[in-house]
């Protein structure tokens, strides 16, 4: 039986890989972005499904993100050679006035001495109310 990777080491390694993807978005570096994604990459976004070429194409006109912050990082081993990184991303898109927040889950596969992203899903965060609690639109807001 193959031992699973230490959770703290896994979180550190996958966090560095995930930040490399975000850094490519900040620099507008399509080649660096594509190098981090598996040829069969699948992204699931509010706009639908995306493959590696779609993810790379978003950088055709340059950077798409001005700044970002990744918090609440959690890693889980999904068996030998695979890991899941989930986190909260706060970011500012290029040319937009308001920052955005979403929750992301990415699955990474060990390749040689490194990792490659095989799947990612983004979930937009609910807006915060005046009491600082996030609620679905159907939930009542306290008076």
Question: What is the strand and helix layout of this fold?
Answer:
Blueprint lengths: L6 H21 L2 H6 L1 E9 L2 E3 L1 H6 L7 E13 L4 E12 L6 E12 L2 E11 L19
Parallel strand pairs: 1-6
Antiparallel strand pairs: 1-2, 3-4, 4-5, 5-6
Features:
single chain; 143 residues; alpha+beta; Nuclear Transport Factor 2, Chain: A; six-stranded mixed beta sheet; 3 helices; Nuclear transport factor 2 family protein; DUF4440; NTF2-like_dom_sf
For the biggest sheet, the summary is: 6 strands, mixed
Order of helices and strands: HHEEHEEEE
Instruction: Provide mean pLDDT, rounded.
Output: 90
- Strand sequence of the main sheet, in spatial order? 2-1-6-5-4-3
- CATH C-level class is Alpha Beta
C-alpha Rg, in Å? Answer: 16 Å
Task: Describe the oligomeric state of these chains in a short phrase.
Answer: single chain
What fraction, in percent, of the residue positions are helical? 10-25%
Number of helices: 3
CATH topology: Nuclear Transport Factor 2, Chain: A
Strand portion: 35-45%
> Whole-Å distance between the termini?
56 Å
CATH architectural category: Roll
Indicate the low-confidence ranges by residue numbers: none
The general outline is globular
Number of domains: 1
User: What structural class is derived from the secondary structure elements?
Assistant: alpha+beta
Domain DUF4440: 15-115
Pfam family, one: DUF4440
Protein name: Nuclear transport factor 2 family protein
InterPro entries: DUF4440 (IPR027843), NTF2-like_dom_sf (IPR032710)
């Amino acid at each position: 039986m193959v031992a699973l990777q230490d959770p703290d080491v896994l979180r550190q390694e996958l966090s560095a890989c995930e930040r490399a993807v975000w850094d490519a978005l900040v620099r507008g570096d399509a080649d660096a972005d594509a190098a981090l994604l598996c040829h069969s990459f699948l992204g699931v976004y509010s706009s639908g499904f995306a493959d590696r070429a779609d993810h790379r194409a978003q950088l055709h006109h340059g950077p798409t993100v001005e700044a970002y912050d990744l918090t609440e990082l959690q890693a889980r081993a999904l068996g030998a050679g695979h890991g899941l990184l989930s986190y909260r991303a706060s970011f500012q898109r290029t040319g937009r006035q308001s920052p955005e927040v979403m929750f992301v889950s990415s699955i990474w596969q060990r390749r040689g001495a490194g990792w490659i992203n095989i799947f990612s899903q983004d979930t937009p965060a609910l807006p915060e109310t005046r009491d600082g609690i996030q609620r679905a639109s159907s939930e009542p807001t306290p008076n």
